[in-house]
Amino acid sequence: MNRKSTRSYSYQTLPRIEENGRRYCDESYFMPNDETELTRLNIVHQIYLILQEGRLTLAPFTTDSPRILDIGTGPGDWAIEMSAEYPNATIIASDLGVFDSGVAHVSLPNVDFQLADAQSEWTYHEPFDLIHIRGLSGAFNDWNAIYHQAMSHLKPGGFIEVADTDPGGDTITVATGGDDGTPYLQIYAAALRLSGHTSGCPRDLQHLERGALESAGFVDVNVIERTFPIGLWPEDIHEKTLGKMALIALLEGLEAHALRQLTRLAGYTVSGARELCEKVQEEVLAAKKITARVRIVTAQKPNTYAQRRGQVMARAMAKVKILNHKPIGEEEDEDEDDDDYDEEEDDEGEE
Ligand SMILES: C[S@@+](CC[C@H](N)C(=O)[O-])C[C@H]1O[C@@H](n2cnc3c(N)ncnc32)[C@H](O)[C@@H]1O
């Protein structure tokens, strides 16, 4: 692939890599892009919608004709539904590859599906109101670089929204486990984390820490974390439905998340990796209670000069309020950060 180009799907002859019974879009990304994975992503999309109370985005942009970029769009469910909700939007949905029967093949006037590697230089010509990145944990070796590119391709005041789940359940009650009693789900999750670490592309939620966004210059970082059920254990009917969907997504995704990375990076044979997945599956089906975490972060590119000045003033006023309650002599270094911010602001105000 030309490292600087973004091109429309229809003009491409796309590579397909068949490997151990799964299909992948290239040699580097660890998740398959076959029918099974397509179904799993369709279900995960519905889970996000339930967790977000039907909202496609939690970013509080105000224009009804936003320019939107969806990085790693996958089958394109989010982008397509955004295009219906915002008919005046212009949406670029980009990915390394294409899912054969995903909605990305539907031709819509306001969505442009493009092939692009988000780790290469972004070549979009006009800035965006919203950049959306969901389910990309483990895809990048340098999230800071991704966030810096996002920053420079957002309009002042534009939003970034990043969401991901923990690849392994974070609480589990099970009767079985490995030789030392450790739940297989934990062995599995630890192997995924280790192989992510070995590959240089961490598979965790670190990129969703407030500081990760702030150090790239984003402000008003809003971190939302939800714990959701996996399985049929909840008594509440809505939670049970959610738990059932999450169970299907988890079981469908066990092999998808693990096969390539465990065989390439963690010393597993193909049958060894599949055996671990089967043990996790048995354990999950027998478990009394499993939950998992999802984290959704929205953050804003600092706004126009005047608006940013207002934000700085508001913060300064808040500090004055605090200082008024402090004993004299404890307030010397309080404004150092704000001075730096003002200088940066003056530069960015020229955009
Ligand atoms: C787990 S899927 C998530 C798809 C979609 N965002 C969603 O939430 O349904 C991850 C997607 O990111 C794409 N991807 C992985 N690495 C990428 C990269 N470097 N640049 C662009 N897309 C990438 C994959 O091809 C895959 O379609």
UniProtKB/TrEMBL annotation:
Sample GO molecular function, one term: methyltransferase activity
Family matches, as InterPro entries: SAM-dependent_MTases_sf
Disordered, as annotated region: 323-351
Domain of life where this protein originates: Eukaryota
Biased composition (Acidic residues): 330-351
Pfam families, per the entry: Methyltransf_23
Gene3D superfamilies cross-referenced by the UniProt entry: Vaccinia Virus protein VP39 (3.40.50.150)
Protein name from the UniProt record: S-adenosyl-L-methionine-dependent methyltransferase
Organism of this sequence: Penicillium angulare
